[in-house]
């Protein structure tokens, strides 16, 4: 069995719900090296070879070998971890933990730790004979197979656009094309590549607008 590789990449857009009242990263007492080793072991059990860990850091903060530079700044604590497996492509994401004290594990590392422990728990389902065909991984396979912007529901689109158009906009406010377009302009003023945003973020903003406008025009919103 091939030992998996570990590579860090920029997170881009966080397209999942944001956790309110995050738990303290102080609950984890492992080192970063132990966390990486744990993650590598779990992905190896699943037949993975390349682990992509996405964190909120600029591409310039990541070395050519795929590791983070010393003293690199990581903003949002959420992480996404993706890899090919015997069950297909899998993606896991969480922002459930944050660093509260200087001696605690950094936020993003704690969230990597949480995912590694989650993978171990999922594997335990097979170990104890509850399932033999990997049903517990199917939900995460679906997330990896379908890009977030192509699977946006109307409610998700309203929530995303409202978050990026804050502070004036709420999801329930966007009931007309004019309201949606106002929210889009506010979000695009921050996330457009010409304004310093990323292409991925702007694409998701545009997709959210298109979903909402389509729903308004066909009468489903």
Describe this structure in words.
The chain is of the alpha/beta class and 221 residues long. It has 2 domains: 5-146, no CATH class; 149-217, no CATH class. Helix content is 40%, strand content 14%. The chain is built from 6 helices and 6 strands. It has helices at 32-45, 107-127, 138-145, 154-164, 177-191, 199-217, and strands at residues 5-10, 23-24, 50-55, 79-85, 88-94, 97-98. A 4-stranded mixed sheet has the order 1-3-4-5. Strands 2-6 form a two-stranded parallel sheet. Helix 4 (154-164) crosses helix 5 (177-191), helix 4 crosses helix 6 (199-217) and helix 5 runs antiparallel to helix 6 (199-217). It is globular and about 55 Å long. The model is unreliable at 142-150 (pLDDT under 50).
Feature tags:
2 domains; alpha/beta; single chain; 221 residues; two-stranded parallel sheet; 6 strands; 4-stranded mixed sheet
Brief characterization of the structure:
The protein has 221 residues and is an alpha/beta fold.
What is the averaged pLDDT score?
Answer: 84
Major sheet strand order: 1-3-4-5
Kindly give the count of domains.
Answer: 2
Secondary-structure element order, N to C: EEHEEEEHHHHH
Beta fraction of the residues? 5-15%
SS field, number of helical segments: 6
How would you characterize the largest beta sheet? 4 strands, mixed
Label the overall shape: globular
Number of strands: 6
Low-confidence stretches: 142-150
**Spatial separation of the terminal alpha carbons:** 51 Å
**Which structural class best describes the helix and strand composition?**
alpha/beta
**CA radius of gyration:** 19 Å
The helix content, as a percent range, equals 25-40%
């Amino acid at each position: 069995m091939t030992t998996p590789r570990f590579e860090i990449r920029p997170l881009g857009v966080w397209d999942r719900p944001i956790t309110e009242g995050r738990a303290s990263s102080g609950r984890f007492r492992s080192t970063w090296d132990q966390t990486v080793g744990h993650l590598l072991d779990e992905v190896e059990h699943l037949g993975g070879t390349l682990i992509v860990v996405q964190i909120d850091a600029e591409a310039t903060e990541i070395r050519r070998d795929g590791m983070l530079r010393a003293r690199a700044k990581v903003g949002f604590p959420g992480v996404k971890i993706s890899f090919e497996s015997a069950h297909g492509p899998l993606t896991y994401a969480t922002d459930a933990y944050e660093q509260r004290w200087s001696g605690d594990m950094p936020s993003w590392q704690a969230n990597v730790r949480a995912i590694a422990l989650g993978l171990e728990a999922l594997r335990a389902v097979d170990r104890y004979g509850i399932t033999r065909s990997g049903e517990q991984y199917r939900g995460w396979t679906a997330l990896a197979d379908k890009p977030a912007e192509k699977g946006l529901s109307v409610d998700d689109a309203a929530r995303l656009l409202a978050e990026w158009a804050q502070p004036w906009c709420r999801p329930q406010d966007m009931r007309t094309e004019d309201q949606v377009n106002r929210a889009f302009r506010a979000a695009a003023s921050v996330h457009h590549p010409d304004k310093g945003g990323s292409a991925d973020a702007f694409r998701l903003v545009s997709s959210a607008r298109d979903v909402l406008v389509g729903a308004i025009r066909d009468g489903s919103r």
